[in-house]
Amino acid sequence: MIISASRRCDIPAFKGEEFMAALHAGGIEVGNPFRPGPARRVSLERGDVDAFVFWSRDPRPFLRHLDGIERGGFPFYFLITATGYPRLLEPDVPTPDEAAACFRELAARIGRRRVIWRYDPVFFSEHTPFAFHVENFSRLAGLLSPFTSRAIVSFFDPYAKALHRLRQAGIDADEASGTPEMQVALLARFAAIAAAEGLEIQSCAEPALAAAVPAGKCIDERLLNEVFGLKLSYRKDPGQRKLCLCQQSVDIGNYGACGHGCLYCYARR
């Protein structure tokens, strides 16, 4: 069983103490995010957990816990989102320079293959047009490439709550995903930038764009097998979107617990 921590909130940034308490207790209670009812107990015993995948925008508060996780013998890697957007869109996330410093520290501790950069979501707006993304991705790739080997890119999905939140802030998000032509053209530019920086690049839940950038997985059993010598077989996660290729996992997060305040986030209440 792979534990995803978490698509629903930033556990490393905001819930590290609770995670470690659950780890020491051997399990955690997780409610169904879509239906009220009794919580499900998810085992965090070493014999039941193949690996942890940590999702974060700011894992700095969590770094002090890594020794304890490693002492428990748990394989893990990080997916770290760094987009460098204006504060209007993401008011409380690390700056690009702060993100690079965190990437550097993590890579020094666990290796750059276990520190994966997510440029997600690509969000088109008057504040972040096509040209912005080309320049911004190039700048971030230059900062982060010494400390990561893979970049994952995905485009904004127009969830109703996110659209409402953006409109309340005066941001027209109706075209924020971009046209298919814009997406292909931008990914081609990203691919060239990534190649120049020595980065592998993948798209997330965008298989129609595979001609520009290969489709990949955020939760990747092949990476875990290669890095940790595991023998996980691929099984698509039935709980994710149809186009998502991620390996099956169990998410232990709760929606509404993230404090970064990103206007475009699907996981905010």
Supply database-style keywords.
pyruvate-formate lyase- activating enzyme, two-stranded antiparallel sheet, single chain, alpha/beta, 7-stranded parallel sheet, 16% strand, 269 residues
How would you describe this protein?
By secondary structure, the chain is an alpha/beta fold. The chain has eight helices and nine strands. It has helices at residues 11-14, 16-25, 66-71, 96-110, 130-144, 160-168, 180-196, 221-228, and strands spanning 2-5, 27-30, 40-43, 51-56, 76-81, 115-122, 150-155, 200-203, 250-251. It has a seven-stranded parallel β-sheet with strand order 8-7-6-5-4-1-9. Strands 2-3 form a two-stranded antiparallel ribbon. Strand 6, helix 5 and strand 7 form a beta-alpha-beta unit. The radius of gyration is 18 Å and the shape is globular. The model has no long low-confidence stretch (mean pLDDT 94).
Q: Which helices and strands occur, and which strands form pairs?
A:
Layout: E1 2-5, H1 11-14, H2 16-25, E2 27-30, E3 40-43, E4 51-56, H3 66-71, E5 76-81, H4 96-110, E6 115-122, H5 130-144, E7 150-155, H6 160-168, H7 180-196, E8 200-203, H8 221-228, E9 250-251
Summarize the entry for a quick read.
With 269 residues, the chain is an alpha/beta fold. The chain has eight helices and nine strands.
Count of separate structural domains: 1
Share of β-strand residues? 15-25%
Please mark out the parts with pLDDT under 50 across 5 or more consecutive residues, or reply none. none
Order of helices and strands: EHHEEEHEHEHEHHEHE
Fraction of residues in helices? 25-40%
Q: Span from first to last CA?
A: 28 Å
Q: Tell me the strand order in the biggest sheet.
A: 8-7-6-5-4-1-9
Average pLDDT works out at 94
- The gyration radius over C-alpha positions equals 18 Å
- Strand count: 9
Structural class: alpha/beta
Give the biggest beta sheet: 7 strands, parallel
CATH topology: pyruvate-formate lyase- activating enzyme
Described by the principal axes of the CA atoms, the overall outline is: globular
CATH class: Alpha Beta
Number of helices: 8
What is the level-2 CATH architecture name? Alpha-Beta Horseshoe
